[in-house]
Design goal:
Helix content is 25%, strand content 17%. It is an alpha+beta fold and 122 residues long.
Length: 122
C-alpha cells in the first residue's frame, strides 16, 4: 500500500515469501491526515483467538515502511530490493527485460483473412 502527496509518500509492505492473510486498511481522517496499517487477524487466519496465554508467543509477518519523495515507482523499486536482498529468492532482471518488445499475436491469420476477402469480392 502506498500513499503519496506533493512532498512525500509512505508505503507499507510485507516481506513474506508466501501470500499472507493480511489487511491493509486506509483511512482519511477528519483533519485530512491518512492512516495506513497492516493488520493480521489470527482468528481469520488460523481459527485462533486473538489473545495469547502467559509465556506464549505469536510471530507476526515481517513488514517494512518505506518513505519516499517520488511516485509509487520509487517505493516499488525499494520493495524489489528488499525482496531480492532479504529472505525471498528473487534475481535481478537482465537489462533486456527493460527493452521495447513488439510481437504480433495474429500470426498469419490476418494476412490469410485479407487474402480470402480480396479474392472473394465482386
Amino acid at each position: 500500500m502506498d500513499a503519496w502527496g506533493p512532498t512525500m509518500g509512505v508505503a507499507i509492505t510485507h516481506l513474506a515469501k508466501t501470500p499472507k492473510w493480511l489487511s491493509l486498511p486506509v483511512e482519511v481522517r477528519q483533519d485530512q491526515r491518512v492512516e495506513l496499517a497492516i493488520t493480521e487477524n489470527p482468528l481469520e487466519k488460523l481459527g485462533q483467538q486473538e489473545w495469547i496465554e502467559p509465556k506464549q508467543s505469536y510471530q507476526t509477518v515481517l513488514t517494512s515502511v518505506i518513505f519516499h519523495r517520488l511516485d509509487y515507482f520509487d517505493p516499488l523499486k525499494t520493495y524489489g530490493q528488499l525482496l531480492r536482498h532479504g529472505a525471498s529468492p528473487f534475481r535481478e532482471s537482465p537489462a533486456s527485460a527493460y527493452e521495447p518488445y513488439w510481437k504480433s499475436w495474429a500470426g498469419g491469420a490476418i494476412s490469410r483473412w485479407t487474402s480470402s476477402w480480396r479474392c472473394c469480392r465482386s
